[in-house]
Specification:
Layout lengths: L1 H10 L1 H21 L5 E10 L9 E10 L7 H67 L5 H36 L3
Antiparallel strand pairs: 1-2
């Protein structure tokens, strides 16, 4: 059961989607916080003037650009708080999706166990009906039982076989639903 839970948490696409949505929300908060950092730029250049006597032959320059907006009247602060709330909501959505997947896996596992127990019970019933059929056949051959008893036992075997086949189909259906719940198809 524990390996099925781990496998489901790794493979279910809705969990991956919820995790990615949480990461996107966290990156939005980081991007908004980065707006507090001032922009600083530098530029270095060199110019050479050939065959011009009235200008210097070589010139170099260095430039710095500093841009910062310290007064935003609380816009950045409120925007970051809003994005943090969105991030928390995405984390809760992710946790909810994980819990739903785990509940579904546990439910499908229980149904698979029930189907297997039913299959075992039907196999035992089928075997018991076959033993009774052999007994009734022996009694009929010894003329100790009626033909109607033999035919009735044949009908009981057919019914037990049909119930066994239904239980077997139920096991395979439960197995397919369990595989789907853990993310393997």
């Amino acid at each position: 059961m524990e390996t099925a839970r781990k496998k489901a948490l790794e493979q279910r696409p809705e969990l991956r989607e919820a995790h990615l949505q949480t990461k996107i929300a966290e990156m939005d908060v980081r991007r908004e916080r980065a707006k507090y950092i001032p922009d600083l730029g530098a530029q270095v250049g060199y110019l050479g003037f050939q065959n011009m006597n009235f200008l210097p032959q070589n010139a170099g320059y260095v430039g710095f650009v500093f841009q910062w907006q310290p007064f935003d009247w609380g816009y950045k602060k409120h925007r970051i708080a809003e994005l943090k709330a969105t991030t928390e909501q995405k984390e809760l959505t992710e946790q909810d999706a994980e819990q739903r997947v785990l509940l579904e896996v546990e439910d499908k596992f229980r149904k698979l166990q029930e189907a297997r127990m039913l299959l075992d019970a039907q196999a035992d019933q089928r075997e018991a009906e076959q033993v009774r059929f052999r007994e009734v056949t022996n009694r009929y051959n010894q003329q100790a039982a009626l033909l109607s008893d033999l035919l009735q036992q044949q009908a009981a075997i057919a019914q037990a076989e049909a119930q066994y086949q239904q239980a077997l189909a139920g096991v395979w259906t439960a197995r397919a639903e369990f595989d789907k719940a853990i993310g393997t198809e």
